[in-house]
Here is the input.
Amino acid sequence: MIGRSALIFPRMSTHTDLAAFWMPFTANRYFKQHPLVVTGAEGAYFIQADGRRLFDCLSGLWCTPLGHGRPEIVAAVRAQVAELDFAPTFQVGHPKVFELAARIAQCAPAGLDRVFFTNSGSEAVDSGLKIALAYHHARGEASRVRIIGRERAYHGVGIGGISAGGIAANRRVFGALSAPFVDHLPHTHDAAQMRFSRGQPAWGAHLADALERLVALHDASTIAAVIVEPMQGSTGVIVPPVGYLERLREICTRHGILLIFDEVITGFGRLGANFAAQCLGVIPDIIVFAKAATNGVIPLGGAIVDRRIYDTLMRGPEQAIEFLHGYTYSGHPIACAAGLATLDVLAGENLVGRAAQLARVLEDAVHSLRDEPHVNDIRNFGLAAAVELRPREGQPGARGREVFERGVAAGLLLRFTADTIAMAPPFISSEEEIVNMAESLRGVLRRIA
Ligand SMILES: Cc1ncc(COP(=O)(O)O)c(C=O)c1O
Here is the structure.
């Protein structure tokens, strides 16, 4: 670990300034001894109190691909808060919520054109799972209640998400709250087979056949849905092997199981197409999204649902509520205004196409780090990449943290999960900024122990 003085983080005035905020997914005590505080942001950079800039290597938390302070979004939010700051969407509507749903449906694969809004990715996941159960119930197959997730999956922190998720540490303490009927597919990462693959690994399509075994074990009549991230982001950019998702799709269809793609990270352009579904040519029954939908400016998530699922749920008496689910802030007007402005900028500047172009630059840049010290694997897909380091003997995670801290000193805000460094730069980055990010990381890797 490098010394505190070397971090050059601006200090807050006293420790009590930091005490009250219980930080999420953070080592609170360590942070409060080594605080990193940003006070502004502009384009692809965060700004610290003393004016130093940090390149936003992960687009916030995968959520600000258009960069910070986009004037179009700022203007839309300002206008909306003055015009209609809140309206319920339970038995009342407002124009922008219908408009945003229609616009998102236009971006989605054909047939997925009904949109349910939430406030976050976790809620989007839980809503998608509930839609799956409600659908089977409405079809007269109420026995289909089992959810199949995948090892190493991150689906947020709701009860559905931690049940379907596959990060052992996130599940351990909360097991008692976990949904009772879940099972998991194996994850698709096998370093021996795919280390340093560029884009999709050629090996691993057969891992989807594990779903057949789960169907044989539990019987298809008990399984509602399979949920997967097309690319696992939070656990270190784990890229789907060629043919793997196609095979999952085929098995789900054959057994009447819904396929849900968790596109909270991949949605809205990250892989160089609107959604991973289109990038990969594999169309799920439900896509859940969040994050980049509003460029991270106002929280908003949701589920994009196949029309046939929606229609099935619309069969009851016309005056009855068809789906007993929703959030006070589902389709919040300000979030919708931010979402519409985000879609305008994405389309107006062809930023999804730009993400596809930059993806090639990122691929070359990160793979050039292959022979640097401690590098165990490098993975990339779309405008996302991960550099996995060998853990320091007896100190897992220490090397990742040191890279993060030295990265800050070198002008990078990187994201580390244990010893894996993830990068998903903004779509507005220049090619030079992406190359510089990798070069700065090279310098950091050469300096760490
Ligand atoms: C794939 C995936 N699903 C769900 C979530 C949860 O989203 P949120 O943090 O908005 O609840 C995340 C967050 O990173 C995610 O990566």
User: Anything to note?
Assistant: The mean pLDDT is 95. The pocket of pyridoxal-5'-phosphate is lined by residues 120-122, 125, 154-156, 229, 233-234, 262, 264-265, 290 (CB under 6 Å). The chain has 18 helices and 15 strands. The radius of gyration is 22 Å.
